[in-house]
Amino acid sequence: MQPARRLDHTLGNAYLAGMTTVHCVRCDLDRDQMAFQPFQNDLGKRAYEEICGVCWGEWLKTQQQLINHYGLNLRDPKAKDFLFRNMSQFLFKEGEVDA
Ligand SMILES: [Zn+2]
User: 1.10.3880.10, 3.20.20.70, 3.40.50.1980, 3.40.50.300: which CATH number matches 5-92?
Assistant: First the structure.
């Protein structure tokens, strides 16, 4: 007997909005998804769909260290490329990293 299934489904979605969990490919846990897709490209989409908020936070810290360490200028396409490569390596353990 499922008289209110459709209504439940709708309410469930509304309730879950903003607290979606994702099975994170990095830490292999079900955790809260990051708040929004960080970049409008394939890597950003993939990170949003496959990486949890905790791991994303760790990457942001690492990214800041890289920016400080190398004195990166984020308006420089090469610096962005460098960070995207490192991000891919950090989150998905793939892609080549060279300094
Ligand atoms: Zn994670």
Answer: 1.10.3880.10
Residue 17 has pLDDT above 60, yes or no: no
Rounded to 5°, the CA angle 88-94-97 comes to: 70
> Looking at the predicted structure, is the pLDDT value of residue 41 above 80?
yes
> Which amino acid is present at 60?
L
Q: In the predicted model, what is the mean pLDDT of residues 34-50?
A: 94
Q: Residue 62 contacts by C-beta under 8 Å, 6 or more apart in sequence?
A: 86, 90
36 CA distance to ligand 1 middle (Å): 15
Report CA(59)–ligand 1 centroid distance (Å).
10
